[in-house]
Design goal:
Low-confidence stretches: none
Number of strands: 0
Oligomer: single chain
Length: about 180
């Protein structure tokens, strides 16, 4: 294993750690499970990012792979402990997901990767609005962990657009959320 491989693997392991921690808290009754619909939508978006990153031939597909695993675990726990709730947020996320999927299917994986990344950010806008209205210092770790994971991924990448776009955008979004928390 090269140092570059080590950096990418480290980023992929760090990425879902906070989701695993949240899953443990939910299973022990220490945290409220989220909506099944919300976490299902995040998992689907993560799968789109994984597949499009893999299809582009980028060496950083392992980062969204970690996110898929983490969000899938949370979704499973939400199915067990949570409730189904559909609101405007889920509708907005669904619209973003459908648009990203259409772009990916009709314009190819490179544009699909960009569309999926932007869909993830747009789907996070309502959460951003909540954080602006009511900062939550207890969520700092939730936002810092992806910044670290994405930084490791970029350092281990070949620095092509397809390799750095997703982690760079994620650093910007999660960094802003960490700042606001």
């Amino acid at each position: 294993m090269t140092f570059i491989d080590f950096l990418q693997l480290t980023g992929a392991i760090i990425g879902p750690l906070v989701l695993f921690w949240y899953s443990i808290q939910v299973s022990r009754g220490r945290a409220e499970p989220g909506s099944i619909a919300t976490w299902s939508m995040w998992t689907i978006l993560d799968i789109i990012l994984l597949v499009t990153a893999w299809q582009t031939g980028t060496d950083t597909w392992i980062l969204p792979f970690g996110w898929v695993v983490g969000s899938a675990v949370v979704t499973i726990l939400c199915i067990k402990h949570g409730t189904w709730m559909w609101s405007r947020r889920e509708t907005f996320s669904l619209i973003c997901t459908v648009i990203a999927t259409i772009i990916w299917q009709y314009l190819g994986p490179e544009k699909g990767l960009v569309a999926g990344t932007l869909a993830l950010v747009f789907a996070g806008i309502p959460i951003l609005g909540d954080m602006i209205k009511t900062p939550s210092p207890s969520t700092l770790l939730l936002w810092v962990t992806p910044v670290i994971a994405c930084s490791m991924t970029i350092l281990g990448s070949d620095f092509t657009f397809n390799s750095v776009f997703l982690p760079s955008v994620s650093i910007c979004y999660n960094g802003l959320m960490a700042y606001l928390s």
